[in-house]
Amino acid sequence: MATEQLTGAEIVIRALKDQGVDTVFGYPGGAVLPIYDALFLQNEVKHILVRQEGGAVHAAEGYARSTGKVGVVLVTSGPGATNAVTGLTDALMDSIPLICLTGQVPTHLIGNDAFQEADTTGITRPCTKHNYLVRDVEDLPRIMHEAFYVAQNGRPGPVVIDLPKDVLQLKSENYLAPEQVKHRSYRPQVDGEEEQIEKAVEALAKSKRPIFYVGGGVINSGDRATELLTEFIHLTGAPCTTTLMGLGAFPGSDKQFLGMLGMHGTYEANLAMYNCDVMMNIGARFDDRVTGRLDEFSPDSIKVHVDIDASSINKNVMVDIPVIGDAERVLEAMLSLWKERKYNLDKKSAKAWWGRINEWQAKDCLSYVQDGPVIKPQHAIKRLYELTKDRKPYITTEVGQHQMWAAQYFKFEEPKKWMTSGGLGTMGYGLPAAVGAQQAHPGELVIDVSGEASFMMNMQELSTIAQYNLPVKVFIVNNQWMGMVRQWQQLLHGSRYSESYSDALPDFVKLAESFGLVGMRCEKAEDLDRMIQEMIDCPRPVLFDCLVSQEENCFPMIPSGAAHYEMLLGPDDSAARPISDEGMVLV
Amino acid sequence: MAPMEYLIESRTIAVLVDNEPGVLARVIGLFSGRGYNIESLTVTEVDAAHGLSRITVVTSGTAQILEQIKAQLGRLVPVHRVSDLTKEGTCVERELALIKVAGAGDKRVEALRIADIFRARVVDSSHSHFVFELTGKSDKLDVFVDLMQPLGLIDVSRTGVVAISRGAKAL
């Protein structure tokens, strides 16, 4: 087949097919017309037309996170590429494997300030795992396959391939299959050092107050990693908490699960972290939202840190036993060593440790009182969970209070069901992410748990939902405030609510109907269950406007600059403990 | 003395990279984006057959920051190897400077005399100026530049540090 001549655009499509890509999220424009032409002439790769390029990247993220595959984005040069930047940064922060194909002006015009020219590789260098500018069509097959390898291996991330229009039109007869391409230098370490693994397992075996602190790295590593993790935790009998990104890595309703930790994590998870003597961090990165005040972070524990990214080790928190490697391989080795040596945690200490944990759990930190006709936002989300859990829905969120409540009240029994913008905190992520998740899982229930402010950041994607008749359910927890901003203004800025009120909101029911979707509005607690059920039973896309009490705050909360044991459990606590000066400067 | 974790150390780090467009920008962007210091940075192709360039960075920071710098460099996709030359045994460090001194009379004679002491070579001259070429460790170059200051120093160009480990082992 060596004599077969393919244009650059045909090489792109061929490489996508060879990489097993079935869906591309994109938006056409001048510089990528050759690729759109090649797409038109085939049927294997489906293109989902979004309404803004930012939506394409989040949709690809939703697709990637819900499938474990690489998400693919196709956008034009200039504004197409710059609109993709937020999504790329989001994917970099949350370690989502993406390929973003960007058009570029022809090579002879690069640097001339041509129409729709932007220095895409320059702009995206700090917000991608890697990027390429293809200057020669002969390099294109290699770069395409290399990009897929880089996006998926090691710590996953987004890779941009910038494609000048002339390169897309030139022909080459040297297409390469994926197996013919081997990256020159990039070989991430996947097997942990045996000596370190042994030390880690020994430390765990000797521990009296262990805890597993699990992050999104386990989910990225694959389903096998979550199975191994669950088996290991069950075998040890130790408690487990996960980060926001790690929800679903360990079954949410398991009795060893303490819930999410961190700023809005559970009381029991945070206190167990503070008081533990051995911390098994598997695929988490000691994010500031998790650690709180660093010098008070779990002061007496031996810290094991398993991470595929060596730069995560000792970045925020100094650890005692680092293990660099892929979670699946390392967990496999740890588990077999634990079994081989017939290790067991000391029964008496374990019992005492669980006794303390049970006391913290008895605080029932996620409790709330739903009385009267006005719906509490916590109640709305809890009911949404209870009424949908049998369907094992895919949940996406936007960013803010509703996101934290969803993380608190939803229980994820398996990985890849939960898609949220953790690292970057991108409002507007959830709606397009739901598009991607629904596209990947046509028969499944996909819900975007949203807030009215976040929703409006990317609501143009309702049109995408309508075009492809994706039965996404958008559940807007509508308190008419940028709730988390308002909460911080209340706690940190003397209740001076500067620009955080959601004024001039549209009628969401009419908005939905104008796109040909189903609109619903729920205003009373007594209607909630019935209407949620109606939404789930509806085979069409639904925009559900759930009006909730306006000034509810998200608790529990570790105020910025505070330590794990300084959690605020409710509004009375926050009045008693003002935020420190150091805390005021933190975000 | 400051506690160990706050002690600022200087390190010379060698980085072997694919000689591809943008690789230097990646390294520099990493330093500026994460707020690390660059005291000196040099780069040039060292192996044309394999398309490899070598970057020498002199940087400073606490032990934790220095470890971060190495780990962050190591995870850049085109990076083959990162070596902390200061920490992993001893190394030879050299820098080259071209120094232009203009003047006449006694100062001119004195400049030439000091250049001789430092084993600097004259690579360009006229009746009113010299250009000296001087190679050595950076502090030697600093001293020479200081001495030339009152003698009519008008221009300095320095390469930045290049370094290689001592002994029979390669990077």
What does this structure look like?
The complex is a heterodimer of chains A (587) and B (171). By secondary structure, chain A is α/β, with parallel strands linked by helices. In chain A, 39% of the residues lie in helices and 16% in strands. Chain A is globular. The mean pLDDT of chain A is 96. Chain B has helices spanning 23-33, 63-74, 106-117, 138-148, and strands at 9-18, 40-47, 52-61, 79-84, 91-102, 121-125, 129-136, 153-158, 162-165. Chain B has 2 domains: 4-84, 2-Layer Sandwich (Alpha-Beta Plaits), CATH 3.30.70.260; 92-164, Alpha-Beta Plaits, CATH 3.30.70. Chain B is of the alpha+beta class and 171 residues long. The longest helix of chain B is centred in the middle third of the chain and has 12 residues, at 63-74. The A-B interface holds A 121-122, 125-126, 129-131, 133, 135, 150, 154-155, 183-186, 309-311, 313-315, 318 and B 18, 21-22, 25-26, 29, 33, 64, 67-68, 71-72, 74-75, 77-80.
What's the quick description here?
The complex is a heterodimer of chains A (587) and B (171). Chain A has 587 residues and is α/β, with parallel strands linked by helices.
Give the CATH H-level superfamily of the largest domain in chain B. Answer: ACT domain
Just name the CATH architecture of the largest domain in chain B: 2-Layer Sandwich
Percentage of residues assigned to helices of chain A: 25-40%
For the record, the CATH class of the largest domain in chain A is: Alpha Beta
- Name of the level-1 CATH class of the largest domain in chain B: Alpha Beta
Distance between the termini of chain A: 57 Å
What is the tally of beta strands of chain B?
9
Major sheet size, sense and barrel closure of chain B:
5 strands, antiparallel
Number of helix segments of chain B?
4
CATH topology of the largest domain in chain B: Alpha-Beta Plaits
Please indicate the percent range of residues of chain B in DSSP E strands (runs of 2 or more): 35-45%
What sort of overall outline of chain B do the alpha carbons produce when their principal axes are compared? elongated
Residue runs with pLDDT of under 50 for 5 or more positions of chain A? none
Shape of chain A: globular
Q: What is the architecture of the largest domain in chain A at the second tier of CATH?
A: 3-Layer(aba) Sandwich
Q: Tell me the Rg of chain B in angstroms.
A: 19 Å
Strand content of chain A: 15-25%
